[in-house]
Protein: Siroheme synthase
Amino acid sequence: MIPLVHDLSDETVVVFGGGPVGARKARRFAREARTVVVSPEFGDRDFGDAELVRAAPKPEEVPSWVERFGPALVVAATDDDAVNDAVVAAARPPSRTATCRSQSRPAGRVRPSRSTSGSASNPSWRGRARWPR
Structure:
């Protein structure tokens, strides 16, 4: 496995899903890039400096949402496997990367792993990557 590091400072990240996974991903990426979260609801979660877009795209609508923002990274973090699959499929062009929260539906591109100690969180690559929790 080859660890990859992406400079997202001038890029856009789109997170589909406003649950705890989507909020965690949004907080993380909003520190580095313009981050947009697309979800029908957000609850009382902290999304950092991410832009929140209240919408519930159907699977067939996901590609147009991805194209609208032209992201470098797309995160599938919904509780709907069909939408997550559509997000991953929409990120298939070579200029995009996808990560998916579902262990049963791997994105096929990025499988991040992280270790956290106190307030420090670091990416880690150990042999075969683990899925984020």
